[in-house]
Amino acid sequence: MVNIWQKIQNRLRLIVQVGFTALTNGYVLGFIKGRIYKGPTKALCVPGLNCYSCPGALGACPIGSLQAVLGSRNYRFSFYIIGFLIFIGSLIGRFVCGWLCPFGLIQDLLYKIPFLKKRKRKNLPGHRWLIWLKYVILVVFVILLPMFYVDIIGLGSPWFCQFICPSGTLTAGIPLVLLNKDLQGAIGFLFAWKVAILVVIVLLSLMVYRPFCKYLCPLGAVYGLFNPIALYRYQVDESKCNRCGSCQRACKMDIRVWEDPNSRECIRCGDCIRSCKRGAICTSMKKNRSEVEKNDK
């Protein structure tokens, strides 16, 4: 029994990732018939990058929803979407990226494949500049272009979803094209472009841990801004930490945790906590719990 519980603990994040992905993409009939679910829950956002057009999706992607609102002439729902992002971000920050995002799960699984040499940040040319690219994409493709580059009747396009998002290509574009003969005859350069981006991300994911999350994801950019102030965050006990570097070696995002435990790049996977033999790293929740127990005594 102890061994089983230990195995569950070791694979807890993977279990949560798979479970949440299945929960938010549970419309099995959509994959059978090649149709998009249009029920009442589709008006609600899910925390991760989960394409609205995925045949199994039961909710909407907050980035896609934000673009749809900014590109329309009716701003009724913008406060809901922005409020949703602020609420989730201030509550758990990029915990969403590490535990609840379907495309994050896909990249994790690709990285586990024992193929090609794995590379960390220090071996990647231009990393220090490329991490800012996701913020450029957020501002330009998610906000500015849908708002200001409009057609003759004043409607903008979902630029990020239409021209970049590999998650939408994998979970929506490809399944819908495979399941609908009418769409197969309509595909052209844009679909080929999106597939090419997806192929590049897949190949990079075999060598680099979560390249899309690190460099391109606008949703990760939003949540990353909240990491330092989120209710759920990491804390380092300086009296215990000897800066041995074990946390950085364990961190697949290659963060110097003792210097910046709430880095915008941290996806809250917990590897650094498990790697620290001195118990110097903990979450704000665990520390608060310990303080309450100490006061009770």
From TrEMBL:
<keyword id="KW-0472">Membrane</keyword>
<dbReference type="Pfam" id="PF00037">
    <property type="entry name" value="Fer4"/>
</dbReference>
<keyword id="KW-0813">Transport</keyword>
<keyword id="KW-0479">Metal-binding</keyword>
<feature type="domain" description="4Fe-4S ferredoxin-type">
    <location>
        <begin position="262"/>
        <end position="288"/>
    </location>
</feature>
<feature type="transmembrane region" description="Helical">
    <location>
        <begin position="186"/>
        <end position="209"/>
    </location>
</feature>
<keyword id="KW-0249">Electron transport</keyword>
<keyword id="KW-0411">Iron-sulfur</keyword>
<keyword id="KW-1133">Transmembrane helix</keyword>
<feature type="transmembrane region" description="Helical">
    <location>
        <begin position="12"/>
        <end position="32"/>
    </location>
</feature>
<keyword id="KW-0408">Iron</keyword>
<feature type="transmembrane region" description="Helical">
    <location>
        <begin position="77"/>
        <end position="110"/>
    </location>
</feature>
<dbReference type="InterPro" id="IPR051684">
    <property type="entry name" value="Electron_Trans/Redox"/>
</dbReference>
<dbReference type="InterPro" id="IPR017896">
    <property type="entry name" value="4Fe4S_Fe-S-bd"/>
</dbReference>
<feature type="transmembrane region" description="Helical">
    <location>
        <begin position="156"/>
        <end position="179"/>
    </location>
</feature>
<dbReference type="Pfam" id="PF12801">
    <property type="entry name" value="Fer4_5"/>
</dbReference>
<feature type="transmembrane region" description="Helical">
    <location>
        <begin position="131"/>
        <end position="150"/>
    </location>
</feature>
<feature type="domain" description="4Fe-4S ferredoxin-type">
    <location>
        <begin position="232"/>
        <end position="261"/>
    </location>
</feature>
<keyword id="KW-0004">4Fe-4S</keyword>
<protein>
    <submittedName>
        <fullName>4Fe-4S binding protein</fullName>
    </submittedName>
</protein>
<keyword id="KW-0812">Transmembrane</keyword>
